[in-house]
Amino acid sequence: MKVIASSIRKGNVIEQDGKLYVVLTAENIHPGKGTPVSQIEMRRISDGVKISGRYKTTDQVEKATIEDQNFNYLYKDADGFHFMNNENYDQVQVPDDIVGSAAPYLQENMTVKLSLHGVIPVAITMPQRATLEVVETEPVTKGQTASSSYKPAILSNGVRTAVPPHIGTGTRIVVMTEDGGLIETQATAEKGSFSRQQLNSLLDLASVGLKEIFVAQRAVLGR
Question: Which 3 state secondary structure label does DSSP give 93?
């Protein structure tokens, strides 16, 4: 399908000289003088070679037809990463270079979105968040708070990140799969994570407490 260069976005797949390229970055540049151009950084899917292309924003480029489908992650072996289609149970193999930096965040049965050109996987979209355990970090020091400076930590998938000083080993945290950045801390007990049943009990208790607070507020306000 022919489209103008200025409409190309990151993640699109371009067909050029009989080969497929996945777009890494796309920027439209409008100089004070001269012709506006689209600067596109791409990776050739067949061998991983990166190239850069500059087009007039009105130039026609061939955008490949891509279909996004949900797949469950199965396992990794020497041939690559293996996924199964959620609907028809077809399995596909995805090369290491396509999964790239997302690899450490893949978890068994995790649902991801694969972009397919025919039956060929060309890109992967991960869930934005993943819950992982802190397996190594500096000990918690009394008096440290969440507002103190962050400290280095290693997660259960081997990724290094930074966490607030009050977080210790065994704490489960939610991180961004794009860069491993901390989003939030999950509840933990003294020596391990809460079970689902314990967490539900805490939520039920919190719900009861909130209702009591609301009743007291209405009484004070005369409502």
Answer: strand
Q: What tokens does 46 get?
A: 């067949």
**CATH class of the domain at 67-125:** mainly beta
Tens digits of residue pLDDT in 165-200: 888 898 888 888 877 776 666 555 545 555 556 656
Helix (H) or strand (E) holding 204: helix 196-221
Q: In this structure, what token pair is assigned to residue 116?
A: 């397919």
Architecture of domain 129-185: Beta Barrel (2.40)
Spatial CA neighbour of 126 closest among 51, 201, 72: 72
- Which CATH code for domain 2-63? 2.30.30.30
> Is 124 within 8 Å of 98 (Cβ atoms)?
yes
- Say how far apart CA 43 and CA 219 lie, in whole Å: 65
Q: What is the pTM of this model?
A: 0.63
Give me the sign of the Cα torsion angle 8, 10, 11, 16: positive
Q: Domain ranges in the chain?
A: 2-63, 67-125, 129-185
Strand, coil or helix: 49: coil
Tokens for 100, please give them. 């790239």
